[in-house]
Design a protein that fits this description.
By secondary structure, this protein is α+β, with helices and mostly antiparallel strands. The protein has 1 helix and 2 strands; from the N terminus they run ββα. Helices cover 11% and strands 14% of the residues. It has a two-stranded antiparallel ribbon. It comes from Leishmania braziliensis.
Length: 44
C-alpha cells in the first residue's frame, strides 16, 4: 500500500470502547491493511 495513504486523510477508527483513534497511529507499522466497502443496497 502507498506509505502515505493514511497520512493526510484524517481518517478516524472507532474502537470497541467507543473512543476514536487516528488511522495512521494504529496502522503505521502494519504490513497489510484490508479495506472492505459495502452498502445496504449492494450486498456482498
Amino acid at each position: 500500500m502507498e506509505p502515505n495513504f493514511f497520512n493526510n486523510s484524517g481518517l478516524m477508527l472507532l474502537c470497541k470502547d467507543g473512543s476514536a483513534v487516528r488511522a495512521i497511529d494504529v496502522l503505521k507499522d502494519s504490513e497489510y491493511v484490508l479495506m472492505y466497502f459495502s452498502a445496504h443496497w449492494c450486498p456482498p
